[in-house]
Design brief:
By secondary structure, the protein is of the alpha+beta class. The chain has a domain of about 35 residues: YefM-like fold (3-Layer(aba) Sandwich), CATH 3.40.1620. About 40% of the residues lie in helices and about 20% in strands. The chain has three helices and three strands, in the order βααββα. Strands 1-2-3 form a three-stranded mixed β-sheet. A hairpin with a 2-residue loop joins strand 2 and strand 3. The protein is elongated.
Length: about 80
């Protein structure tokens, strides 16, 4: 059976409870003695990092395909109107 914590304990001791869940413990949060939510550690997934890498490659490909005009050295005076 999963360990239980009260909703009050969750609010006042969130860091400690989060550490317990991060260590692999499943917790059931109760309010007035009745379970309201179960907190479990998420499964590790490489999908997020793969999606991020694909988006970075897409952004770099787009950036390299665009002509952004002024290819010379930036001169500060050009940024101001006369």
């Amino acid at each position: 059976m999963d360990a239980t914590v009260t909703s009050r304990d969750l609010i006042h001791n969130f860091a400690a409870i989060a550490a317990r869940v991060a260590a692999g413990e499943d917790l059931v949060v109760t309010r007035h003695g009745k379970p309201i939510v179960k907190i479990v550690r998420p499964e590790a997934s490489n999908k997020a990092s793969e999606d991020r890498a694909a988006l970075v490659q897409k952004a770099l490909a787009f950036r390299m395909s665009q002509n952004f005009g002024h290819a010379g050295k930036f001169v500060r005076d050009e940024a101001y109107d006369d």
